[in-house]
User: What shape does this take?
Amino acid sequence: MTDISSGTIAVAGLVGVSAASLIPGVDLEAVIGAFAGALFFMVMSKDLSWKARAANFLFSWIGGYFFAAEVVAREWATTSALPALLGGLFIVAFCVSIMEFVQTGKAPGWLSIIPGIGKK
Assistant: This one.
């Protein structure tokens, strides 16, 4: 089965950003930033099937947008592009590692900074 090409990803991004620009009240900085973060995560996850990468991409794009909205609403940042990029980049990795922690009981490496949860 063929893999998703970069042209397909570019077209999906263009369609998504164009559709978002038609909706009043949507922050296009956050949409573009979340797209970039989700795209980076999807490109770096070569070991997943194309369906799993597409699902992670969509979840990451939406999660990055809402992460940026929350950061700006709490006034931790004045613009939403960078929080959206970081949210889109890390939200799927964070959620996947938490799901693995719940299923296997083995704490992710980044969780070791919290006393009582990580390695001793």
Summary: Residues 6-113 form one domain. Residues 86 and 92 are 11 Å apart (CA to CA). The chain has one domain: 6-113. The radius of gyration is 16 Å.
